[in-house]
């Protein structure tokens, strides 16, 4: 019958159509799966599993840089670590560091902001903790162009020389006795930075306000691991009392800053911008106040920024320089043949019985090699300042989520046997000659990229000046009762586990001929 025949044809057609549609659906489904599987975000880097809730916190020893190095040998140069609620990523090779600091520099241009740092920086208003953006850019410009320009550092040269002289006199009065080299280096760095900040007259007033004690307490609190940083939900309890003590510090520091700023403005007013305290109005505080008053739209800084920048200089500058001086002296006392070479160079450049002057520094190439080698073997900021990516990104084939804390183990990278011959040996010669280290991610103790250490121009003047003076003016030896060891202790700066105690004996007799007189 026509309708039956027709139905049969209709059935066949329907079956064929159905078969075609199923086939088409299967192809589309497989294609979709394939495309999606290729689009899947890369995995997080490998790393230890850790315990529920607390992660790997209980397994980390006190020398964190060494623990992370050991873990990296097992899990690789890009490693994930869960610390409480915090996801950390640890970088332990120069090639991965290059991807972070060069190829993805903008994404990684924020520094981490732990609770103690947030309090002392007026909520991230200083240069170290300020989020990357226009305010950071303005402060960095002020730091580079106004405070630490070559011209301005030249002007304050006499201030530094005076503090160096003070260090020499103190060592002279202690000649033949045991002295703690780290303490001397710390006091000298503090004095140097403070006199550059606001000159000697205001320095006396700051001392009355216990400024130096407060700086030391601040550094100590910044060093302490804070449970609240790893478990923000218990931050309210402030279990270790760090937040409470830091608030006390900042409130006392703030009072000192307010008083000194007022005094500086009065002095500058009275003396028509030339306060007669030997800074000639060129101390950092005067400069900062002038920048603020100038209302330059490119440098819109506030009173809060000024106070936060003072803390930056004091906290960022003192322990880093002092620790480097102590390590350099320890290595040189440990290796007298290297110390003798430095002293010979000093004799040739500075002259016997003359005082070391900043103008000698560019000609002290062996001393420079010694200082570089010190910073290579004893990276004083061993994990740099942790960075926080502003967006999720892929590095070394692994995913690094937005907000993770990225630590770079520069201590391990600078001892990598794949890059350095005899990496554990103190050998300044490796830095002599035409060594190109710019943008080399096997040696970067000052960090890299936009957020690289802003204090470098000052370090380049202070560090050689202190070490050269110590070696040129004195002969050093460890007292018989002491044993020189080179073990390390982790903190904000990587210090010696046991302080360097040594005896300084004058090489010349005062008064010295002064090359600048
Ligand atoms: C041996 C001495 C020093 C060492 C090893 C050192 C090391 C560092 C490191 C590793 C960073 C982080 C860099 C990064 O994230 O890539 C940094 C940042 C910084 N340092 Fe230093 N530093 C030293 C001395 C100083 C001094 C003397 C000052 C101040 C006068 C200073 C001021 C700063 C500031 C303001 C920053 C933050 C820069 C920014 O975030 O833009 N540092 N330093």
Automatic annotation (TrEMBL):
Pfam families: p450. CDD domains: CYP76-like. One of its GO terms (molecular function) is oxidoreductase activity, acting on paired donors, with incorporation or reduction of molecular oxygen. It comes from Dioscorea zingiberensis. Heme binds at residue 453. SUPFAM superfamilies: Cytochrome P450. InterPro entries: Cyt_P450, Cyt_P450_CS, Cyt_P450_E_grp-I, Cyt_P450_sf. Belongs to the cytochrome P450 family. The chain crosses the membrane at residues 12-32. The keyword GTP-binding does not apply. This is Cytochrome P450. Its cofactor is heme. PANTHER family: CYTOCHROME P450, FAMILY 706, SUBFAMILY A, POLYPEPTIDE 4 (PTHR47951:SF3), OS08G0547900 PROTEIN (PTHR47951). Keywords: Heme, Iron, Membrane, Metal-binding, Monooxygenase, Oxidoreductase, Transmembrane, Transmembrane helix.
